[in-house]
Amino acid sequence: MSLRNTTTAYGSVSKFFHWLISTLIILMLIFGYFLDDFPKDIQPITYNIHKLTGLTILALMVLRLLWALANPKPVLPTDTLPWQRTAERMTHFMFYVFVILMPLAGWIGSIAENRPPHLGGFNFELPIPRDKALAGAAFNMHGTVAIVLIVLISAHVLAALYHHFIRKDNILVRMLPGRSHR
User: What pLDDT, in 10s, does the model give residues 4-26?
Assistant: First the structure.
């Protein structure tokens, strides 16, 4: 299997980014939903883990974006309807925007709330003021983007299953780990 994409298949680097980031996002959506349910004495730790994982997703998404810009995207089957091509382009574009926006909003909210993510004694700061209203707006955006991502992920999974089980094309298979395409 090639590291790079071809016009007919995703390479191993694209697959790695896809599956790692998607797994982390799904786990973070679940973990984030239950953050307030953890015992109060460990909430600072659980919130910091959530923040650090969010920053990791942000870094991975930036690397994934750079990789996607440097690689051809496999083409869709020739019989793909125009509205489906548009939906595919829009969905992937929205994934990039919202998966980058979500950790940024959480990071901005954390900084504005004066609770930056930290690793040991190092704080991951941004040059923004401590501001309760900004923190509230950023966390509202963070929560709204979570809902948008749940909808996008659901649509993406349903589309992949539609292609695999109804259209019986290779759209799903070409993104599966360890698979080469033909």
Answer: 999 989 999 999 999 999 999 99
Q: What is the pLDDT of residue 178?
A: 79
φ/ψ of 168, rounded to 5, equals: 55, 40
Give the pLDDT confidence of 43-75 residue by residue, as tens digits. Answer: 999 999 999 999 999 999 999 999 999 998 999
Domain boundaries, the chain: 12-175
